[in-house]
Write a structure and sequence with these properties.
globular; single chain; alpha/beta; Transcription Regulator spoIIAA; 3-stranded parallel β-sheet; two-stranded parallel ribbon
Length: about 100
């Protein structure tokens, strides 16, 4: 299995949820890095897929890391109350309000 990061699509909406779940399922059982640098929008269905994958990887004793999250992805995770699920994994974009 390749250890190459999986690049998340720019738009993670309802239409992207099933393909995302399939792509993640194919990589189950191995450490996985998700490249979030291209994400412009995150919807609830894909957030559910990502949170489920995070829990599944943890239950399997594997790591699932969100690397290089875009500012939009970071903001969406915070807005949806899921920022802590992926915190402490990679440097995130800083905002002016955090200074």
């Amino acid at each position: 299995m390749s250890s190459e990061p999986v690049t998340l699509a720019p738009v993670l909406d309802l239409n992207a949820a099933a393909p995302l779940a399939q792509a993640l399922t194919e990589r189950r059982g191995h450490p996985l890095v998700l490249d979030g640098s291209a994400v412009q929008r995150l919807g609830g269905p894909c957030l559910q897929v990502l949170l489920s994958a995070k829990a599944t990887w943890a239950a399997d004793g594997q790591t699932l890391t969100l690397a290089e999250p875009s500012a939009e992805l970071t903001a969406a995770l915070a807005l949806m109350g899921a920022a802590q699920s992926f915190s402490g994994e990679a440097p995130t974009q800083t905002s002016e309000t955090s200074r």
